[in-house]
Amino acid sequence: MDVKGSETAGTFDFVVSGYADPQRYFSGAADDIRARLLSEGAVVIRAADQCRDPGVFETAIGALGFETRDYVGGSSPRSTIQGKVMEATRTPADWSVILHQEMAYVKSPPEIIAFVCVEPAGKGGESVIGDMRKLERLIDPKTLQQLTDRGLKLRRTLPDQARVNLKPGVKKSWQETFSTASVAEAEVLCRARGWDFEWSGDDLILWQDCISPLRQHPLKAASIWCNQAHFWGAAAMIEWARIDGREQDASELINAHRRSPQLLEAMCFGDGEPLAQDLTLELFHTVRGLERDVDLAQGDILLLDNVQYAHGRRAFSGNRKLNVIIADWAAGQSHAVQG
Predict the structure, then answer these.
(1) Are 145 and 282 members of one domain?
(2) Are residues 127 and 200 in the same domain?
(3) How far apart are CA 169 and CA 255, in angstroms?
(4) Which domain holds residue 280?
(5) pLDDT above 60 (res 5)
(6) How many domains does the chain have?
(7) Which residue numbers delimit the TauD/TfdA-like domain (predicted)?
(8) What is the pLDDT of residue 80?
């Protein structure tokens, strides 16, 4: 086993070469990789070419000691490839993906997210990361106090699959969100998670968990900004489209916000009142200021602590394929808090 570490742009690179048994390699390197990930929040594992195979990738993440999870209730349009391995996103190539912590709108989001580059983009498509430990110091204390006192709750509009393409903004049906075409099964999944919901014709209006803007790290004595208040809401979606140069999308979002705001997602306070547009934009640009690009070559793995670091993507042209796994540190480890 050949493991060489090097500091690169604030993350820590593990360079893999000449290994024939991925499970053995990742098991042997697990302590070093986990320690660096917990300390730094972001790790890049270079040249893990065999992990382009979904089965090998899942084996490798398991060998690191992480407990993989499913994506029920997630907002990104994506499909499962094999086991717990999913495509990174089906967001169109001409869209960027703004910084976010995965599923940070629910009470128990994944603690770990891992990407493997199967095929880099022809042009653009850089992965983007952001250190969310910095955010608490950048947000006005009065704003933070207001969000803490009132809490945050995401309202989502999930259309029926037959009309999902008519929805402005992020296009994801309730069938894809819950991996079922059964209304009864979708309702069972909502109730099991404590999510409020109602049907509007064939469309599902979903209210996900009321959360605090700061989240206690499962293994560290630290509370870290972990939510998507900057992501959802008409103001953020319109600004995002304008930055990308997606003028038609921006126009559709503006019209929907004026005429049918119920069609759009909204980040709300815990009592259901949507956040003001100026607050949403303030948070949007503050988070955007944390962006840092990470170039991933074929076979590279980007491993993130999903509380400490957010992730995103630049727009691109050509083909680009990344696979993803979400996971937790491991069952029963949340008591092992570090200072």
Answers:
(1) yes
(2) no
(3) 12
(4) 138-287
(5) no
(6) 2
(7) 20-324
(8) 87
- Bridge-partner residues for 312, per DSSP? 128
Work out the average pLDDT over 179-185.
94
My answer on whether 181 and 282 are in the same domain is yes
> What are the phi and psi torsion angles at 200 (to 5°)?
-120, 90
Phi, psi for 218 (deg, rounded to 5): -70, -25
Q: 152 with 282, same domain?
A: yes
Whether residue 177 is found in the same domain as residue 266 = yes
Contact 4, 15 (CB under 8 A): yes
Res 142 pLDDT > 70: yes
In whole angstroms, what is the distance from residue 167 CA to residue 238 CA? 14
In a domain, 335, yes or no: no
Residue type, 143: T
Is residue 169 within 8 A of residue 265, CB to CB? The reply is yes
pTM summary value: 0.89
Nearest to 125 by CA among 149, 89, 153, 101: 89
The DSSP annotation for 4-64 comes to EEEEETTEEEEEEES-S-HHHHHHHHHHHHHHHHHHHSEEEEET-GGGGSHHHHHHHHHHT
